[in-house]
Amino acid sequence: MKSTIISKKAFDFLNRLAKNNNRDWFEAHKPEFKKLESEIKSFYAQVQENLNEHDDIEKMKMFRIYRDVRFSKDKTPYKAHFAGSFSRLGAHLRGGYYLRLKPGETFLATGFWEPNKEDLFRIRKEFEMDASDFRKVIGEKSFKAVWGEIQGDGVKTAPKGFDKEHPEIDLIKRKQFIFVRNFTDKEVLSEDFINEVDKSFKAIRPFFNIMSDILTTNLNGESILD
Q1: Pfam family of this protein, just one (predicted)?
Q2: Architecture of 8-215 per CATH?
C-alpha cells in the first residue's frame, strides 16, 4: 500500500543528517535511511497516482540523497532533504511539477525552469504580441491564493530584438516562469498534506494550459506539432 503520510521519523532523520553530514554517520544509519527512503518513494508514487487522475504524467524522478560535490564549495556529501519531479506526457503537455521535503523548507514548485532558446523566444514573442490572456490566468484570485506571484530569473534589460519600452517588458525579460508554494512542518506532517499537494498541482493547470498552447502553436495560432 502506498504511503499517504510523511512520518515525523523522516524529518527527525533529516535533521540529524544535517547535523552529522559525513560518511561515517550516514553509513552507520544507512538501514534507517533505506527504510525511510522506501516510505518516501511510496509517498511520491501516490502523488503521481493522484496527478494521473487529472493530468498525464510521463515519468517520476526521485533525486538521490548523494550530492555531486565536484564543482561545489560545499563538500558535505549528502542532501538533508528528499526531492522528486513529475514530467507531463508528450509534446502537447508542457511544464513539470516538483516537490522537496525538508524540515523548515518544504515547498512545491511548478512551471518552466530552463526553457530552451526556441521556447523562450516563442514565449517572448507571444507576450510582445498580446499578454492579456496570460495575465488574466496568473492574476485570477483563486490562482494567486494558492500560488502567489510568478517567480524566476530574468535579464536586466530588454532581450535582443525587443523594445525596452514595451508595456509587457516585465514578462518579456523573464528567463524562467515558476510558481512556488511553501509549507510548514506541521502542514507537511499532517494527514491532509498529500491532498494539499494534489489540490495545488491541480490549481496550476490554467497556467500550464496557456503555456502549452503558446509552445505548440505559431503566432497565428496554428499548431506546429505533427
Answers
A1: DUF2461
A2: 2-Layer Sandwich (3.30)
Per-residue pLDDT of the chain (226 residues; tens, 9 = 90+): 577 899 999 999 999 999 999 999 999 999 999 999 999 999 999 999 999 999 999 999 999 999 988 888 888 999 999 999 999 987 888 999 999 999 999 999 999 999 999 999 999 999 999 999 999 999 999 999 999 999 999 999 999 999 999 999 999 999 999 999 999 999 999 999 999 999 999 999 999 999 999 999 999 989 998 6
Which residue(s) pair with 182 in the sheet?
Answer: 107
Residue 129 to residue 32: CA distance in whole angstroms: 55
- What are the residue boundaries of the structural domains of the chain, listed by start? 8-215
Exposure string for 15-35, b = 16+ CB within 10 A, e = fewer: eebbeebeeeebeeeeeebee
Contacts 24+ apart (CB under 8 A), 43-47: 43/2, 43/3, 43/4, 43/5, 43/6, 43/194, 44/84, 44/99, 45/2, 46/2, 46/3, 46/4, 46/194, 47/84, 47/86, 47/99, 47/194, 47/197, 47/198
Rounded to an integer, what distance in angstroms lies between the CA atom of residue 6 and that of residue 191? 8
Pairwise CA distance, residues 129 & 168, whole Å: 9
Phi/psi for 151 (5° steps) reads -130, 175
The backbone torsions φ and ψ at residue 3, rounded to the nearest 5 degrees and listed phi first, read: -75, 140
